[in-house]
Amino acid sequence: MHKKFPFGRQTKTRFGFYTIIAILVLPAIIGCAVTDAGRLENSPDVTRTFQNSQILANHQYYISGFQTLPYAIIAVDDKYQLRPSRWKPIDMNPNVLNVLIYRMDQVYSLNPRGAWILDSEGNRLGAWYSAQYQTTIRRQKDNQIIVLAPEPPDLRGVP
Predict the structure, then answer these.
(1) pTM of the predicted model, to two decimals?
(2) Would you call 55 exposed, middle or buried from its count of C-beta atoms within 10 A (0-12, 13-18, 19+)?
(3) Number of structural domains, the chain?
C-alpha cells in the first residue's frame, strides 16, 4: 500500500513561493534595520568641561529652551553645520556658560551631565550637556547634522 506524503504538491508550491518572497524581501528588511543614527556617549570629561566653564575651541554653541535657563547646551564642531531646528545659537564665553550651568543645576535639580555627540561611525560631532540623556542624531550630506532638542524637564513635584 502506498502511503500518502503529508505534504502535497500544493503545499510544496506554497512553501517554494514563500521561500522566494523571503529571499527577495529579507535584504530590504535588513537594509532598513541598518541606521545612520548617531548617539550620545556619556563622558565625565565633557561634564567637567561644561561645569568648569571651559569653552571648546572651534565649536559653535547652541541652547534649547529658555535663553537664560536652557534645557540643554550643545557645542557643535565647526566642521559640521547644525540643520535649522529648535536650537538657538549663542555667543558663548566662560561667564555666560558658568551662569547657564548654575541655573540648570539649581532650577532643574536633575543632575545634568555631558556626553559626546557621535555619528553612526563614532566620529565626534560635538558635545552635549543636559539632564536629558537621549536624543536623535543624524549626519547628512555635506556635513550637515541633525540633533533633536530635548523635551522640557519634567518638574512635577518640584516646589
Answers:
(1) 0.74
(2) middle
(3) 1
- On whether residue 153 sits in a domain, the answer given is no
Burial environment of residue 74 by CB neighbours within 10 A (0 to 12, 13 to 18, 19 or more): buried
- The grid coordinates of residue 96 equal 555666560
**pLDDT at residue 158 above 70?**
no
Residue 112 falls within a domain, yes or no? yes
Report the alpha-carbon distance of residue 48 to residue 157 in Å, rounded. 28
In contact, 126 and 59? CB cutoff 8 Å? yes
* Residue keyed to cell 550651568: 101
pLDDT at 46 over 80: yes
Which residues form the domain of 135? 39-147
Tens digits of residue pLDDT in 116-138 = 999 999 999 999 999 888 899 99
155 in a structural domain: no
